[in-house]
């Protein structure tokens, strides 16, 4: 652990302009996270083009602050309106909303905010301690190690994403398919361009992301003419947890934070799963499981501690191995590569300041989030009721500008629109978008690693099974793929009896 | 005398008159067919600022990045209006792509404007490889063909350099593997996944020397030779490949091209602006920091250099496409 570098990075963030980035990022993240229909992934995808013109350090600070803020802001709407502002807060609605209805909205928000803060802190400590050792291990990873790790990650995403395994796989495969046009990694030749020279470099991540996450949501919100949900009376009494509260919940807080961190580390699984798992575990070990779903304090704490903990967890494989731990991390990789920074094992060597900037930003954004949320939650809650007629055109405008600014071509704007429609249709068919994006990001990486390995061995596949790490990853991938199928068959045969 | 003075004034008026009345009337676009932050982008942005420093154009230069594959931005310029306001900055990839068949257009479809900012490469091996010179490296590649793994970006500059190097000793053959650019190759070579690669001078200094210029004992890789016509200032102890007895120079210049039918006046105007820009302190400092040489060429000298580069690169690119 390089403490001087960490303190250096913290000092850097406290410089006025960089601190402004941290502040704006956290605040915007919270607001966007709180507004249903606007997600953190969308905010970050839309901010990415602006970071082209920024110092890379400021850019990562801004993006990470947004990430932390967006995951946290979701709890406001989840609690007050029973609408999760971000998917990660789904579990919070189960207990937060009943508690708020029962006349304790301040208490419900306060529990969520403090749990978010603790979750963020715990995962940050893990991030700080294991990232560098892991990156040293990862320098010994050759192409076959990477290839099998990526395969395992892709199976994992498909098998644990929301909805059925088959729909997760369809989504992932679709993402892999659209990543195929572009430069063939073992011949250097453009392929599958369908006569569009603009596709010589493949479909660009940014317009695809903005399309699938932002444009699709705009289309959905336009179609969706549901009335505004009922407002809950807002008061902020009980917003700060007392010491005895903390003491009583310490076990739950820590357990949920560690669950969240661990799930965050697993490549490709986002905050939603972390919060679902922590909630389920909390319910199973609770003395009062019957309260869950009717305003249980433990439920709110488990869900919010875990979803914030996934942020720090997900940054670990991103920094150490260049593999995204979540959808937002996939976008962060895009941001780094735009600044010619290659995430992965050498990041500590080549861009030490940036790595420590990311780590420091994760801590400071978390602290700032806590301060901002406790002090301004009342005002943020008011923003939620902004009419969509004002919000959506602005979002759409940013989508177009953002896609155009990447390469200064209209082609990317058309790509964005096409993927907006595709994303909308996928959501209609209840096909999750997460695996699609991860497949899109990981497939080219996996292909390049496999073909690179084959070029080194002269076409010999055997290292996949003869080297220890590739063997381990392959076996785990097979288990992950087969297990849900077996479990389902068993359940069915039981049900039949 | 009077007559001579009058003639000179007339000539002066004529040149300034042309410059003011016709070109440039609006900002000049310089397209970088690569993402922001890469070498070409850095050269373009320093040129832009230096042209301003030198006050060499009456209108600003706008640098526009067109990412994805480099052929996209290059083709955009090729097909744009030849009105004198569209330029592209690109390097040997344009010729490599034509030679390997990746591109369906040629550098000859453009009008050359200027060249500047040249860098050469260094073949790198591991310190524990037992190889101390390019001669030993090539002998080994000949004695055990297709076993030494060279990390490259297939079809790109480092791949072409590898093919060119192995061709200097008949029978020598490397096994090329897709790894990527400088940083990825540094990792792969350090992790002993590959046996050799090539890096640029700036990368070698960055990866193998301590900030005070002495050898970094923790670095596990070392350069064998320099592919430039003369030794690299930043690493004066490293011989050139030619000094070692192998006929190879391989350097990469940044070229500025315009659409084929661009008026000569605009071509000359922009070339002169570049010429003025490279004399500025800003540009000179950039060259020194990056280990680049000035290598400013225009007109016939540029055309001759392009022809020579093409005749050297075409056969290499064709071989690379078969590897």
Briefly say what this structure is.
The complex is a heterodimer of chains A (497) and B (323). Chain A is built from 20 helices and 2 strands.
Unreliable segments of chain A (pLDDT under 50, ≥5 consecutive)?
Answer: none
Which protein chains make the most extensive interface, counting residues with beta carbons within 8 Å of the other chain's beta carbons? Answer: A-B, 39 and 39 residues
What pattern of helices and strands is seen along the backbone of chain B?
HEHEHEHEHEHEHEHEEHHEH
Largest sheet of chain B: 8 strands, mixed
CATH H-level superfamily of the largest domain in chain B:
Bordetella uptake gene, domain 1
Q: Give the oligomeric state.
A: heterodimer
Per DSSP, what share of the residues of chain B sits in E-state strands of 2 or more residues?
15-25%
**What is the class of the largest domain in chain B in the CATH system?**
Alpha Beta
- Radius of gyration of chain B (CA) equals 22 Å
Mean pLDDT of chain B: 89
How many domains, in number, for the residues of chain B?
Answer: 2
Estimate nothing, just give the exact number of structural domains of chain A. 1
Helix content of chain A: over 70%
Radius of gyration of chain A: 22 Å
Return the string of H and E elements of chain A: HHHHHHHHEEHHHHHHHHHHHH
Note the gap between the termini of chain A.
57 Å
Portion of residues in helices of chain B?
40-55%
Shape, per Cα inertia axes of chain B:
globular
The CATH topology of the largest domain in chain B turns out to be D-Maltodextrin-Binding Protein, domain 2
Based on secondary structure, the structural category of chain A is mainly alpha
């Amino acid at each position: 652990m390089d403490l001087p570098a960490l303190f250096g990075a913290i000092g850097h963030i406290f410089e006025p302009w960089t601190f402004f980035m941290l502040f704006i990022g956290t605040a915007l993240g919270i607001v966007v996270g709180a507004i249903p229909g606007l997600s953190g992934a969308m905010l970050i995808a839309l901010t990415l083009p602006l970071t082209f013109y920024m110092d890379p350090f400021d850019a990562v600070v801004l993006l990470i602050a947004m990430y932390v803020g967006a995951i946290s802001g979701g709890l406001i709407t989840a609690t007050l309106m029973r609408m999760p502002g971000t998917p990660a807060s789904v579990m919070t609605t189960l207990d937060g909303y009943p508690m708020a209805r029962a006349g304790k909205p301040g208490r419900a928000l306060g529990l969520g905010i403090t749990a978010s803060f603790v979750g963020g802190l715990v995962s940050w400590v893990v991030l700080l301690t294991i990232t560098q050792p892991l990156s040293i291990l990862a320098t010994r990873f050759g192409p076959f190690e990477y290839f099998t790790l990526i395969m395992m990650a892709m199976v994992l995403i498909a098998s644990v994403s929301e909805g059925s395994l088959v729909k997760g796989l369809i989504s992932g495969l679709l993402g892999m398919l659209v990543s195929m046009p572009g430069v063939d990694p073992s011949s250097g030749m453009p392929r599958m361009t369908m006569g569009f020279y603009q596709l010589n470099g493949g479909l660009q991540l940014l317009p695809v992301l903005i399309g699938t996450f932002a444009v699709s949501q705009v289309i959905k919100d336009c179609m969706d003419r549901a009335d505004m949900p009922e407002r809950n009376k807002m008061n902020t009494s009980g917003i700060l947890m007392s010491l005895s509260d903390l003491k009583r919940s310490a076990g739950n807080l820590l357990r949920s934070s560690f669950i969240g961190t661990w799930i965050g580390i697993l490549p490709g699984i986002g905050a939603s799963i972390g919060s679902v798992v922590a909630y389920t575990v909390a319910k199973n070990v609770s003395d009062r499981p019957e309260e869950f779903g009717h305003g249980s304090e433990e439920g709110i704490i488990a869900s919010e501690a875990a979803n914030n903990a996934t942020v720090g967890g997900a940054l670990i494989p991103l920094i150490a191995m260049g593999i995204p731990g979540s959808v937002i991390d996939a976008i962060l990789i895009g941001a780094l590569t735009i600044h010619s920074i290659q995430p992965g094992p050498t990041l500590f060597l080549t861009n030490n300041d940036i790595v420590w900037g990311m780590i420091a930003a994760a801590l400071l954004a978390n602290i700032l989030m806590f301060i901002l949320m406790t002090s301004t939650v009342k005002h943020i809650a008011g923003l939620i009721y902004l009419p969509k007629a004002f919000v959506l055109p602005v979002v759409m405008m940013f989508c177009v500008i953002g896609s155009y600014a990447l390469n200064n071509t209209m082609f990317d704007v058309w790509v964005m629109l096409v993927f907006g429609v595709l994303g909308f249709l996928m959501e209609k068919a209840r096909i999750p978008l997460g695996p699609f994006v991860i497949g899109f990001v990981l497939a080219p990486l996996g292909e390049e690693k496999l073909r690179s390995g084959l070029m080194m061995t002269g076409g010999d596949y055997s290292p996949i099974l003869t080297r220890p790490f590739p063997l381990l990853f392959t076996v785990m991938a097979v288990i992950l793929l087969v297990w849900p199928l077996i479990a389902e068959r068993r359940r069915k045969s039981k049900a039949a009896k | 005398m009077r007559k001579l003075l009058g003639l000179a004034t007339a000539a002066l008026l004529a040149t300034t008159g042309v410059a003011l009345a016709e070109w440039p009337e609006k900002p000049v676009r310089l397209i970088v067919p690569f993402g922001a932050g890469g070498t070409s982008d850095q050269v373009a942005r320093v040129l832009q600022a230096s042209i301003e420093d030198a006050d060499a154009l009456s209108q600003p230069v706008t640098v526009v990045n067109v990412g994805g594959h480099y052929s996209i931005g290059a083709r955009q310029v090729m097909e744009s209006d030849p009105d004198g306001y569209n330029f592209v900055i690109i390097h040997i990839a344009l010729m490599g792509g034509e030679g390997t068949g990746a591109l369906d257009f040629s550098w000859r479809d453009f009008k050359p404007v200027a060249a500047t900012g040249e860098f050469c490469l260094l073949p790198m091996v591991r310190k524990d490889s037992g190889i101390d010179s390019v001669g030993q490296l090539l002998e080994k590649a000949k004695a055990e063909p297709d076993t030494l793994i060279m990390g490259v970006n297939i079809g790109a500059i480092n791949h072409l350099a590898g093919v060119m190097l192995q061709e200097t000793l008949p029978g020598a053959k490397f096994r090329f593997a897709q790894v990527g650019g400088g940083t990825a190759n540094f990792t792969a070579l350090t992790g002993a996944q590959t046996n050799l690669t090539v890096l640029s001078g700036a990368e070698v200094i960055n990866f193998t020397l301590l900030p005070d210029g002495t050898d970094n004992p923790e670095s596990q890789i070392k350069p064998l030779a320099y592919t430039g016509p003369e030794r690299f200032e930043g690493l004066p102890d490293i011989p050139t490949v030619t000094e070692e007895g192998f006929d190879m120079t391989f350097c990469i210049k940044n070229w500025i091209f315009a659409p084929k039918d661009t008026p000569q006046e605009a071509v000359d105007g922009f070339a002169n602006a570049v010429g003025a820009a490279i004399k500025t302190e800003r540009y000179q400092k950039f060259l020194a920091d990056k280990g680049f040489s000035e290598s400013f060429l225009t007109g016939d000298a540029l055309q001759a250099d392009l022809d020579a580069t093409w005749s050297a690169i075409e056969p290499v690119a064709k071989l690379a496409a078969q590897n």
